[in-house]
Design brief:
Helices cover about 25% and strands about 30% of the residues. The N and C termini lie far apart (about 80 Å). About 5% of the residues have low confidence. The chain is built from twelve helices and 29 strands.
């Protein structure tokens, strides 16, 4: 046997030494605190803040159960209903009516909300209640009420409901979402998966996020757990104030994956106040399409990157059109507020009272100008032009040297092609029919089937006008183009490398 052998007396002595060492260690451990007192104090203070914020808001949080009746829906337009095989039989009276139609089954949904007025006004998301026949609000005390007088604003994905005869209810305090900083602690409260009064904690991980869930909202991003059923519930700061309405998650699985989004309360206050008073939201309208001021566009139109937005489109007859705003103008200030991004301008404009006259500061051809614009109410449907002219099309012939250098071929847009490609509302533009995959245009995202609407500030209706507008331009200097797809417009600059 290898290794050293110990005698019984040696083993006994060694055991005694080990036992003495253990006793000494236990004695020392008993004298030392398990956790540093200062660290424990900070942690306990944070826990108390969580507890107090949660206990303050939980009584104001509600569960919203929704349902819709089954509905019949005809098949796709233009398709005939399937023949009824029971026609002429004794079963026709049971299966005759509605045969061949699609049936939308009964739907049930679950969401959250928060009481914002003691009289029974509840705030939630539009998508929680939209299209539902029954909306039942469950209070924290266990009572349930059928909601009445439901008012919604799909563009911000917000809704307000009323519940009657519920007595004097606890109401949440709406805080200042603009005061939030990235890294601030927040709590998400609601009924995920039907689990009432669930509280999760996290931080504000980003601000100003844009989502398709709401066209006219900039979201707070948080890593507090938000799951199905949380929609419409409050996001709360550690003072117990509601700073957002939980609305959406970014997920590949349909459940929480670390990124959630909430509508900030400073927008919520404005929208909910109008829904309560007017039953709808009135937004002011400037009438421009704008883009961010990138380095390339700043070089072409002036200004500094991030200090303003470039006007890419002026809607005919809009307040901006009447005030003389032009394509290529760089809007730097609106009613005294600096504009850094398209969302800055949108939010600044829509909250101004309809009919107000405001000052807009812009850069045009390197010069600063101020125009006065009288804002109108945002129309439900923007009229974006008249019917395409019926003049016979001029076919594009051989591409010019400039077009070859740009890497494109173009042709006139006809009414028939416009209808086929989804450009029915367009009155101008030339159609891109080919793009060199290795050329300048392809590198900037210009593709076959897109329209070129302007060269610099010149409208182009035909290939002839497009070529005239290119005269005097150079790829060394850079050529800004306004391009369009059926759904959006943007400005690109084609510029050759030095």
């Amino acid at each position: 046997m290898s290794g050293r052998e110990f005698s019984p007396r040696q083993r006994l002595a060694l055991g005694g030494m080990i036992l003495a060492s253990l006793c000494a260690a236990v004695s020392i451990s008993a004298q030392q605190p398990v956790v540093d007192a200062d660290a424990w104090g900070h942690a306990d203070a944070l826990s108390r803040a969580f507890r107090q914020a949660a206990s303050h808001v939980i009584p104001t949080v509600v569960t919203i159960k929704t349902s819709s009746r089954p509905r019949s829906m005809a098949g796709p337009r233009g398709m005939e209903e399937a023949p009824n095989p029971f026609e002429g039989t004794p079963w026709e009276q049971f299966f005759g009516e509605g045969f061949g139609q699609q049936i939308i089954p009964r739907r049930e949904g679950l969401g959250s909300g928060v009481i914002i007025d003691a009289s029974g006004i509840v705030l939630t998301n539009n998508h929680v209640v939209e299209g539902m026949d029954s909306v039942v609000v469950g209070l924290a005390d266990g009572r349930e009420f059928t909601a009445t007088d439901i008012k919604t604003d799909p563009q911000s994905d917000l809704a307000v409901l009323r519940i009657a005869n519920a007595g004097d209810l606890p109401a949440a305090t709406l805080g200042d979402s603009d005061a939030l900083q990235i890294g601030d602690w927040v709590l998400a409260v609601g009924s995920p998966f039907g689990l009432d009064e669930t509280v999760s904690a996290g931080i504000i991980s980003a601000k100003g996020r844009a989502l398709q869930a709401a066209e006219r909202a900039q979201f707070l991003q948080t890593d507090a757990a938000i799951n199905p059923g949380n929609s419409g519930g409050p996001l709360v700061n550690l003072r117990g104030e509601v700073v957002g309405i939980n609305t959406a998650i970014a997920s590949r699985s349909g459940a929480y994956q670390g990124v959630g989004f909430a509508i900030p309360t400073n927008l919520v206050k404005w929208v909910s106040d109008q829904l309560v008073r007017e039953g709808r939201v009135k937004r002011a309208y400037l009438g421009v399409g704008v883009g961010a001021l990138t380095p390339e566009l700043a070089e072409q139109f002036g200004g500094q990157v991030g200090q303003g937005v470039v006007v890419q489109r002026v809607y005919p007859g809009s307040p901006a059109d009447k005030a003389g705003v032009q394509f290529g103008d760089v809007i730097t200030t609106f009613q005294g507020a600096a504009i850094h991004s398209p969302s800055d301008l949108q939010q600044a404009v829509e909250k101004v009272a309809v009919g107000s006259t405001v000052a807009v500061v812009l850069l045009r051809d390197g010069q600063t100008a101020t125009v006065s614009v009288t804002l109108e109410e945002l129309p439900e449907l923007l009229a974006e032009g008249q019917a395409l002219p019926n003049a016979p099309p001029r076919r594009s012939t051989t591409a010019t040297e400039m077009e070859k250098a740009m890497g494109i071929e173009v042709r006139d847009l006809t009414a028939q092609i416009a209808r086929q490609l989804g450009y029915e509302d367009r009155t101008s533009g030339v159609l891109v029919t080919w793009v060199d995959p290795t050329g300048l245009a392809a590198d900037k995202g210009l593709g076959r089937g897109m329209l070129i609407l302007k060269v610099r500030k010149t409208d182009v209706l035909t290939v002839e006008q497009f070529r005239e507008a290119l005269q005097g331009e150079s790829l060394e200097r850079g050529i800004p183009l306004l391009i369009a797809t059926p759904t959006q417009e943007t400005v690109i600059t084609l510029k050759s490398s030095p």
